[in-house]
Amino acid sequence: MALVSVKDLHKSFGELEVLKGIDLEVEAGEVVAIIGRSGSGKSTFLRCLNQLEHHDWGTIQLADQRLDGTSMTPGELSQNVGMVFQSFNLFPHKSVIDNVMLAPVVVKQTPKSEARRIAEEVLAKVGMSDKIDSYPAQLSGGQQQRVAIARALAMNPKVLLCDEATSALDPELVGEVLRVLEDLAKEGMTLILVTHEMKFARDVSHRVVFMHQGRIHESGPPETLFTRPQTPELAQFIASVV
Amino acid sequence: MTDFTTWDIVRNLLLAARWTVVLSLIAFIGGAAVGLVLTLLRMGGLRPVRWLVRGYVDLFQGTPLLMQLFLAYFGAAVLGFDVSAWTAASVALTLFTSAFLCDIWRGCVEAVPSGQWQAARVLGLNYLQSMRHVILPQALRLAVPPTVGFSVQVIKGTALASVIGFVELTKAGTMLNNATFEPFTIFTFVALGYFILCYPLSRYARYLERRLYGAGIR
Ligand SMILES: Nc1ncnc2c1ncn2[C@@H]1O[C@H](COP(=O)(O)OP(=O)(O)O)[C@@H](O)[C@H]1O
Ligand SMILES: [Mg+2]
């Protein structure tokens, strides 16, 4: 059974239909890269997956649980689906360790000492152990994004969503974040990432999904998708980004 | 009637200035408490509640404080409540202050980037948890300078309580003037009294503002 199962997902903003029926199944441990032009609905799709946006039609299942509607509280949802934003969105008034500990303590009511242990563990995983007492403003963009990844991991989600996690970074900082994501992929984390890093999509993902005008236009393993695109839209898109 | 020495004048004004300070503190503390509740309702309450709060804020911002004092004092009498000048002035100034602080604070809460709400939400925090742990601490930093700045308006606003017979700095000045006919001297001292109360606060507000923007919140 698929870990994430999306059926016939529709979403409009007023008159503008942004998602026009998305079907997608993601297995546990799978890494899915979503590519596509700006405005094709990639972010909206991810935001529906963690209910930051409420879709108009269709269903989203996580394992055997309905994730949409009122069936899950935000607290439960956060223990299933983590998210990393393009703009990091760390809490500027909290130190690195407090950023990471906040949700376990407040949402899961994990005892402080245990939460700290978890936070140190996930921060070690993203290579930020030496900065636990720093504040976000004292970190580079790449470091901030790694902390944001650790913050999401601290809730031990089943799926991690990344919306252009490296797009706001200076080119020399992209690598350190991609390496962290690659490590997660190798550990078997289920990842759904919107990305403009085609090399990363090709090397790390198990499947690439090309979104075009609110639909999944084409999808498949990276080697076939990138070398033998079936539609002119994808061929054109690939030509425009490499 | 020149049996009042300058020292008598100053002493009487100083005694009355106590009540300016006390009334300002009541208005400010009461106004902050009511304003905080209003801000939370305005931001997160149900739609009709939000409209009510907005109406309240518009009402108090859109009418002169003097009228609010008259209504609190004489209006209460018409309705059969026997309120003292103390009560009327405290109530009117508290409501007035709460409306302005609610508006200032709403602006500060809204100035926290929406990405902060989203990050909190994605981590599973509900509305109140997000407010408490993520939004308010950041809004608070933004709010301190304009709040301190507004306290100056509250102090000056207490002068209007003199018209309903509340004896504070301004009323004391008027009474002394009636007894001595030395308006220039007396009102110079009265003005000086307000200045001594207000100037440090506005300087402090400016200092806080510079520090906040100098440091850069993000
Ligand atoms: N909150 C919103 N309100 C109205 N329109 C939106 C909103 N969010 C996204 N859109 C529109 O939906 C379309 C798809 O946006 P998005 O999902 O961000 O695309 P992508 O991430 O692929 O660039 C765009 O036309 C965008 O303007
Ligand atoms: Mg996007």
Automatic annotation (TrEMBL), chain A:
GO terms for molecular function: ATP binding. CDD domains: ABC_HisP_GlnQ. It comes from Salinicola rhizosphaerae. Residues 4-238 form the ABC transporter domain. The keyword Cell membrane applies. This is Amino acid ABC transporter ATP-binding protein. Gene3D superfamilies: P-loop containing nucleotide triphosphate hydrolases. It is a peripheral membrane protein. Belongs to the ABC transporter superfamily. Keywords: Amino-acid transport, ATP-binding, Cell membrane, Membrane, Nucleotide-binding, Transport. It is found in: Cell inner membrane. The keyword Metal-binding does not apply.
TrEMBL record, chain B:
The chain crosses the membrane at residues 20-41, 62-81, 184-202. Its main location: membrane. This is Amino acid ABC transporter permease. Residues 17-205 form the ABC transmembrane type-1 domain. InterPro entries: AA_ABC_transptr_permease_3TM, ArtM/GltK/GlnP/TcyL/YhdX-like, MetI-like, MetI-like_sf. It is found in: Cell inner membrane; Cell membrane. It is a multi-pass membrane protein. Coiled coil: none annotated. CDD domains: TM_PBP2 (cd06261). The keyword Transport applies. It comes from the Bacteria. Keywords: Amino-acid transport, Cell membrane, Membrane, Transmembrane, Transmembrane helix, Transport. Belongs to the binding-protein-dependent transport system permease family. HisMQ subfamily. The keyword Ribonucleoprotein does not apply.
